[in-house]
Amino acid sequence: AARTVPRRRPPRSDMGCGLTLLLLPLALLAAPARAEGGTAAAEEVQIEVLHLPEACSPKSKKGDLLNAHYDGFLASDGSKFYCSRTQNEGHPKWFVLGVGQVIKGLDIAMMNMCPGEKRKVTIPPSLAYGQQGYAQGKIPPNATLIFEIELYAVNKGPRSVEAFNQIDKDGDKKLSELEISQYLKEEFARDGKKRHPSAHDEILADIFRKNDHDRDGFISAKEYNVYQHDEL
């Protein structure tokens, strides 16, 4: 559940480290968070809109690939435990929304958000790191978290229907090794990065190892985990 408090105001001047969002490194904010007990009210993510651009399209949805900056604070004392601008040479973070790459509270908090929008979100422990906390990220047990987020881009995610259909050349609703191999070659040619000759085969094998759950040599729409529609 999420409660949105629409409130338009200029961005704060002290956000130099980044009005930002959430992905400590991916491993941090995706660390297991268990909701253990608590009332229904404790399950609610509170959302305050700090800035909403006049043009708001497209709005983020499950499966989209987002690019954003964010700061993370402990609600108890206001101390900052993360700033994305100090990581990866200050580049905004990329992640797929709604698939567990970040904590559940952030997956909820960043739905229906548009490029250029800024939010301040408050996430209860049950939708963050629960009773166990996350020592590596300096997050104590039962911590309520606050994130200040600035979203830069909303793109179709790698698990979208469009992406699946792009790879599925013969339209049989399953991806063969040949189809994915060809897709990888096209992607490699597009980004122009130098790779060791073995990289293609290693990545292809890794894709099937992680996605071909029934080991039939194909990746079905269900195994691919398409998020936008059920008709596949």
UniProtKB/TrEMBL annotation:
* Organism of origin: Pomatostomus ruficeps
Q: Which UniProt keywords apply?
A: Calcium, Endoplasmic reticulum, Glycoprotein, Isomerase, Metal-binding, Repeat, Rotamase, Signal
Pfam families, from UniProt?
EF-hand_7, FKBP_C
Q: Which interval of the chain is the signal sequence?
A: 1-35
Question: Known InterPro entries for this protein?
Answer: EF-hand-dom_pair, EF_Hand_1_Ca_BS, EF_hand_dom, PPIase_dom_sf, PPIase_FKBP, PPIase_FKBP_dom
Q: What is its EC number?
A: 5.2.1.8
- Tell whether Calcium is among the UniProt keywords: yes
Give every EF-hand domain span: 155-190, 199-232
One MF term from GO for this chain? peptidyl-prolyl cis-trans isomerase activity
EC class, as a word, reads isomerase
Q: What is this protein called?
A: peptidylprolyl isomerase
Q: Under the cellular component aspect of Gene Ontology, which terms does the record hold?
A: endoplasmic reticulum
Q: Which reaction does it catalyse?
A: [protein]-peptidylproline (omega=180) = [protein]-peptidylproline (omega=0)
Q: Where is the PPIase FKBP-type domain?
A: 63-155
Question: Is Signal there in the keyword field?
Answer: yes
